[in-house]
Write a structure and sequence with these properties.
132 residues; Dna Ligase, domain 1; globular
Length: 132
């Protein structure tokens, strides 16, 4: 059975893993998910991630969750653009999440990046998710 929204599935696994105080979670690998994990790691929301080969031409993304004071670092993670409703934004129209304290993950022609870097690079794109 195919998955319709792999990014939404990964974000749900991260949210559920932190609620259950898991140290590590796994999800199927794709380049988009790997790039989103790279952004989350650079912003300090996850500890680390790695790609494991599962054989039979399958890969898994192993994500180490991060905790501070017994609570998950990620307090809120939401999918913005879904397969049924894509949300695109110009660089001047990029919203600020929690007045700039939160991070929007944006897929641009220059790659997946945060809204802060997209404003610096002067590019817009598809708003994938928001994290606080």
């Amino acid at each position: 059975m195919s998955m319709n929204d792999p990014l939404g599935d990964m974000l749900s696994r991260i949210r559920n893993g932190q609620m259950a105080n898991k140290a590590v979670i796994e999800c199927p690998h794709s380049r988009l998910l790997e790039n989103v994990c790279a952004v989350l790691k650079a912003e300090g929301y996850i500890r680390d991630y790695k790609i494991e080969d599962r054989g039979n031409n399958k890969k898994a993304l192993v994500i180490e969750l991060k905790y501070a004071e017994g609570r998950g670092v990620i307090r809120e993670v939401n999918r913005v653009s879904t397969p049924g409703r894509r949300v695109y934004s110009k660089v001047n129209d990029l919203p600020r999440f929690y007045n700039g304290l939160g991070v929007l993950v944006v897929s641009t022609p220059q790659g997946v990046m945060t809204d802060h870097r997209a404003r610096q690079a002067n590019v817009g794109g598809e708003i994938l998710c928001r994290v606080f």
